Amino acid sequence: MDAILKVDGVSKRFGGLMALSDVSFEIRPGRIMGLIGPNGAGKTTMFNCIAGIYTPTDGRILLNQEGRALEVNGSKPERMTQLGVARTFQNIRLFGSLTVLDNVRIGRHCRTGQGFWGAVLRTRAQKAEEALLIEQSLEYLDFVGLKGKALDIATSLSYGDQRRLEIARAMASGPKLLLLDEPAAGMNPQETASLVDLIHAILEKGITVVLIEHDMKLVMKICEHLVVLDHGVMIAEGGPRDIRENPQVIEAYLGRGAAHA
Amino acid sequence: MLEQQLINGLTLGLVYALIAVGYTMVYGVIELINFAHGEVYMLGAFFCVTFISAFGIPLFPAIVLAMACCAALGMLIDRIAYKPLRKAPRLAALITAIGVSIFLQNLAMIIWGSRPMPFVRKAVPAIFDEVAFSFSDVSISWMQVFIYVVTMTMMIALSLIINKTRIGTAMRALAQNQTSAALMGINVDRVISFTFALGSSLGAMAGIMVAMYYNSMSAMMGYNAGVKAFAAAVLGGIGSVPGAMLGGIVLGIAETLGAGYISSEYRDGLGYAVMILVIIIRPSGLLGKAVGQKA
Amino acid sequence: MFTKFPALKFILLAAVLAYPLVPFTDYYVLHVAVLTMVYMILAMGLNVVPGFTGLLDLGFVGFYGIGAYTAGILSLSYGLSFWLILPMAVLAGAFVGMLRGAPTLRLSGDYFAIVTFGFTELVVLFLTNEIWLTRGPLGMPGIPPVEIDLRWLHAGWRYVFTGETPYYYLALILVALVYAIMLRVENSRLGRAWLAIREDPLAAASCGVNLMLFKTVAFAFSAAIGALAGCLMARWSMFLSPDIFKFWESFLVLCMLVLGGLGNVNGAIVGAVILICLGEVLRIVLPKLGLPAETRFLVYGLIMIFIMRFKPAGFMPHVAGCSFVGRRARELKARLEAERAG
Description:
The complex is a heterotrimer of chains A (about 260), B (about 300) and C (about 350).
Chain A: E1 5-14, E2 17-27, E3 32-36, H1 43-51, E4 58-65, E5 68-71, H2 77-83, E6 85-87, H3 100-107, H4 116-121, H5 124-144, H6 159-172, E7 177-181, H7 189-204, E8 208-212, H8 216-222, E9 225-230, E10 233-238, H9 240-245, H10 247-253
Parallel strand pairs in A: 3-8, 3-9, 6-7, 7-8
Antiparallel strand pairs in A: 1-2, 1-4, 4-5, 9-10
Chain B: H1 2-30, H2 37-55, H3 59-82, H4 90-112, E1 131-135, E2 138-141, H5 142-164, H6 166-176, H7 178-183, H8 188-214, H9 221-236, H10 241-261, H11 267-281
Helix pairs in contact in B: 1-5, 1-6, 1-8, 1-9, 1-10, 2-3, 2-4, 2-8, 2-9, 3-8, 5-6, 5-8, 6-8, 9-10, 9-11, 10-11
Chain C: H1 6-18, H2 27-53, H3 61-78, H4 82-101, H5 109-129, H6 131-134, E1 140-141, E2 147-149, E3 158-160, H7 165-186, H8 189-199, H9 201-206, H10 211-237, E4 239-240, H11 247-260, H12 265-288, H13 295-310, H14 326-341
Antiparallel strand pairs in C: 1-4, 2-3
């Protein structure tokens, strides 16, 4: 298996609504992929299926585990994170009343192992793990530029900073695949520009990034490969230029974004 | 023997149903478990008795008056304790509800003492003790007939109110989606108050009937009956009025049969057990829509 | 307060340690002190579930009862020593906690609260009805006091706890133990995982937190502490009866938490002190006003209504400090400042 993750004929039904219909694509390592489409197309649903929050009604999702394909559809979110798939949320789901540092430390949960007895007895191993964890968490914060705010309460951060914190938290789980759900939503052009830098830096660390975005300028600029969904169906796939000129895509958006990018 | 148990169970069940609809309606509109409802049920009986013995009012007017007082009490509780917490986290509202329940329970204990006392014997028409119908080894007393007739009437009236009147429709709208209902011009507070008034008056009626039927009432009666009626509401599907009615009847019959044939010491336990099992196995209850756990 | 006057901490500690030895001690005060400490343990135990994982446990007193009756039965029927029974009661609590927790793992909010409530009612019903085991409503008197029996080392070394003073110190040790464990657990991967579950279970799962496992640990841990308190109480008051463990007690402990600040271990302790002392004050004052002593429950109800209305976060709303507190926080802050400047 070459791809990092393969979506194979995935469908997702909610009662009478078919949110995803037989969607198939591959996520190749080391590049930025964009998942785009008008509102309600099923993009976040797709993310949720990959990340384990939803179980596909049909089809399979295969994750590359050391060259072999592992079927992960129906796995729980905890397991997906452990397998190396991390995500951020469209509506920012931080641990609001906890500090910035704690958010990241929790993000690293699956890469640490101390449990109840370690905590109670304060073994040497536990103390070492905690100390290392702080250093590593501070590094992740530094990576997104939030190190100075480590002890601030998460909800006190500005909107843009909260998005960065969510990214830091996702990165702390040491993923090989990072799913970003509308990371640029609500950002001004400056913030968007530094987000672009951040995403490139993430890529340089060897992490594959998949983006859901509505900001077409951003998408066309950084994504090397695009998958377009509309009403749960994949209507196009390819490089930015092909997608931009694809009549079906333009029609789906009805002149929004795509025609102007 | 079995038939008699069924009759008795049905009597108990109808009473539970009457209390249960109060819980379910309030939960339907504001998603709050109104712990104080059991106390309103208890106070219905006490108000009635007070009106009869202290003011010399005859039975039926006293009943109506007690119901009205409890309706007002229900609205008052909502206005003072629950309304300020509409936007607060669920835990706060729940604790407040328990606080109100404890307050009322102990208030009743201070005023009327904590020992069980009998209903006012002389006010109850003597005919109620007598057997109305009797066949094979089953006998139904006039008291039981009275309970059937009254509860049935009230439940029919309730259904009519909920389904055929404007305010009933408003209640149903509120239960579905509070924001949209408000946007449609429904006066949310007024509908909620009405819901409390309605549920409380029915609960009061139930309290009075129980006190008359067993000829015993105490400040603690609200707690026990309240939990069971709530279990009935959960069994039927919390938020569903027909569910509460059905749940009440089922629970009443099950409890009576269980006490008769299995164990009378654990009769109260049946209600709790039912509640737990329903929530674990099928949280939507008998008549509620199957609720999937939200992601 | 303690950060401004660090010496205050030591003075208070010294006072608490020395009190029973001072000549003017009052038996009643000691008794209330031990009672308060039992509740402190209960409050800290309950704090784990609503305070850390955000689930409302309305049936906590069930574990208190299980611990107490385990201690009572083992003491009376088998004559086991307190020191042996304590871990057994704790284990019994943990086990039942897991048992109760298992079917509730997928439940949230109101449904969880209802099931915990129903569960405890069933426990109390069981304790009341199974007379062959618990003597039911007659209660279980004559539970032996705690004793330290070292006669296997030396003939004369046997000390039976008499009066309140030895129990005072025993309770103090247990409170300190539970407190220390709480702080350590709070400021650990486990504690952080619980807080994540409280804040946002979905996000917590997405961070890799195994919700089922961590919730189960929380239930078992909380129940174990409740059972610990029960065990202490059984051997201290030397009498048990099922109506000590009714729903009201669960609510009282919950009030202590809410008063002190949900999630805050220090708050749990403060809450316990306030409500027990208030209870004792009311117990004395109310009869003087011509009201039965039971009226104090009414006052509790009122207090809860007012607190929820005006100060729902409690008096010490500082969120459970799994972030650093005190010295380590200052060190980290200083370091970050230095890096920013440099």
